[in-house]
Fold indole-3-pyruvate monooxygenase.
Amino acid sequence: MKWVDALFLFFSRLILGDTEKYGLQRPKIGPLQIKKSTGKTPVLDIGALRKIRDGEIKVVPAINRFTESGVEFADGRKEDFDDVILATGYKSNVPSWLKEDEFFSQSDGFPRMAFPHSWRGKNGLYATGFTRRGLMGSSYDASRIAADIANQWTEALARNITAHNNA
């Protein structure tokens, strides 16, 4: 297993290059050892890596807290963002930083509601990737989230038009 992992790591570095220069830290052990020891399958989406290289996606350091218009990083630096997408790694640590007990379970870091109802929380909080149903489950959640956001915008626009017409 160690020899196969060594080959995987060698060829992934040869094909993908040094991903650490983009803020993506590599695991110390190979993918087969990770799968054997944790049951998790490490995945790097080539499309996402291309967007990171092109600067369309920005990998940032640890977040200390959210601010009204963005985030404050662990190093004290603040930055404004329209959207924040969190990739929390191979084990969900969401409850450690979200400080929200209704949507996510403290015991395993997953949404309390089971699939297919695990994608929407309160106040615009959405979750995808927690289905335990692979990419198909994540795709289902992402579609539901996109439809919900589109519906909210449609309703807000209709309210604004109605208010404007009544004025």
Observations:
- Residues 1-57 form one domain.
- The chain is about 40% helix and 5% strand.
- The first strand starts at residue 63 and ends at 66.
- The chain has a mean pLDDT of 79.
